[in-house]
Amino acid sequence: MGNIKFMALGGQDERGKNLYVLEIDDELFVLDAGLKFPDKGILGVDMVIPNFDYLKDNRQRVKAIFLTNASAYNSGATNYLLKDLDVPVYCNPITAQVLKIKAQRARMRNRDSNYHVVHDKEIINFTSTKVEVFRLTASSPQTLGFAFSTKQGAVIYLGDYIIDGQEQSSFSTDFANLAKISERGVLALISDTASASRRGFTAPNHKIESYIATPFKEKHKRIIIGIFEEDLFKVGEIIRAAQENNRKIAVYGRTMSSLLDSNLLADFNVRKEDLMSPEEYKTSENGVLIISGNAEVLYSKLNKIANNNDEVVDFTENDLVILATPPAPGVEKRHAQILDELARTEARIMALSDRNIWAMNSSYEDLKVMVSIFKPKYFIPIKALYKDFLEAESAALSAGVKPGNVGIIDNGQVLNLAGRQLAVTDRTIKNGDTYVDGLGIGDIGNVVLNERKQLASDGVIIVGVSIDSRSKALVSSIDIQMRGVIYIKEENTIFKTLQKQIADIMTKGQSDYRTNPSSYDLNEIKKEIITKVRSVIKQESGKQPMVLAIANEINEKDFTPFVRPSKNLKTGGNRYWLNKTTNSKPKK
């Protein structure tokens, strides 16, 4: 009996950051490589991607990466993974195009040759297995699923999908083909269950056409639609509504614009005469402007326009602004803030709620149908919270999976599929979050995040002193700067208390130096200053700010004392100016 294991590096009991690994014999196959958006408490971080250490340590065994679609949650970390792994990436043409654009913008190493476009019913051969590609219905056209053949039966991997038998475009599913795969025997069905808690089918609740039909019929009214760039199904609905009402379309988003300019969205039947530039939209009477981007980029664009800071677009009383995509996981607060900002503009606002518009993920009944089609021995729920896993387990059992054959795992756990029964092994693989901050990947740890939180909540105090390098005597006034701590004037008793206690510390240090020069340690004196300042500020204000102590050692003979009358001086005393070549005072 061969070796078949399944493991999760991300996506379990969280929203996004989906990355799974299927091990067949001695070969590893990566299934999706997504990101997630940081929680509000993770300051200054652009995105969160999985920890790749396990894959890097086993790079010789990794044979390929399989991506289901272009959603950031499923493919957003791929370019970062390719920095460490030089392996083929199998995906649909839209996913390949989007990831190439993202890599170019991030100035990443060119990995275009790694991308291999595959299509429905195509077969890819490896030493341990052959992989059959099939198409599913989801928010992106030609969303893919993969069937890995083994001696025990096929292992089926499903990313995002819904059951919609009426769909006939590139968003459709060939259910007859799925039935053929099922006839060969299915060992395990690995399925997205992000929306398993929703009862019923997702379709037709994923469509927005009925909600936008009336606004599009209004004459002499421009329409601005904010939408996530991966939600291409809704973009198709918007284009059809615009064409039916003789409205021209402008796109404000580089990725979406590139896709519409290509032939990758042929089902949308977009003609050149249907399109105009964002600049032309500004002078139009009834144009449609699609503003696209991932969650944070979309909200930043809308915020910029709402505050009249955008050079291309502005909102007027002739505009109707529609937020066509409900908030993505992790950005709900940002979504609410943008709605508030938009409400302050002259435009009319319409926001589609997730109560009415469902994300294109499988609901309870969708899961039951897919389990009924494939008839797997084992069912493995992925890409969801634990509560959704339990709902998915209920759906799988009601569709025929035997009790005990549902494998729910956490990130880092390894599930053995080749034994007589499904079992979680004792081995745990390294996993976790890697923070991406600008061009930095993994440079930010808990220490940096805690410092950022401390700065944001309690502020910073900077203490600066200068001492003579020979005598260790204090030769300058003590400068104390506060930012974000408390507002106090310079003559406040807190300033005077701090200056006196810092002066006492410096005097004691000078005394110790005279007694035993070898024991003098300026770093220890700075630590003592930091401790004392923190203690005083906490006692006086309750805050615990970050404190930085800067002590400069100078040769007093190289400086000329100069007193400049100024109300900005923190204390009386001399200021010292570097004056090696002349004894004259520096010019003011």
Describe what you observe in this structure.
By secondary structure, this protein is of the alpha/beta class. The protein is 30% helix and 24% strand. The strands form 6 sheets. The protein has an 8-stranded mixed β-sheet with strand order 7-6-5-3-2-1-19-20. Strands 8-9-10-11-12-18 form a 6-stranded mixed β-sheet, covered by helices on one side. Strand 8 (123-125) and strand 9 (130-136) form a beta hairpin.
Show the helix and strand layout.
Blueprint: E1 4-10, E2 19-24, E3 27-33, E4 47-50, H1 53-57, E5 62-66, H2 72-75, H3 78-81, E6 89-91, H4 93-105, E7 115-117, E8 123-125, E9 130-136, E10 143-148, E11 154-158, H5 175-183, E12 186-192, H6 209-217, E13 222-228, H7 232-244, E14 249-252, H8 254-261, H9 278-282, E15 288-293, H10 295-306, E16 319-323, H11 332-343, E17 348-351, H12 364-374, E18 378-382, H13 386-398, E19 413-416, E20 423-428, E21 433-437, E22 440-441, H14 446-458, E23 460-468, E24 479-483, H15 493-515, H16 522-541, E25 546-554, E26 559-562, E27 575-578
Parallel strand pairs: 3-5, 5-6, 6-7, 11-12, 12-18, 13-15, 13-16, 14-15, 16-17, 23-25
Antiparallel strand pairs: 1-2, 1-19, 2-3, 4-21, 8-9, 9-10, 10-11, 19-20, 21-22, 23-24, 26-27
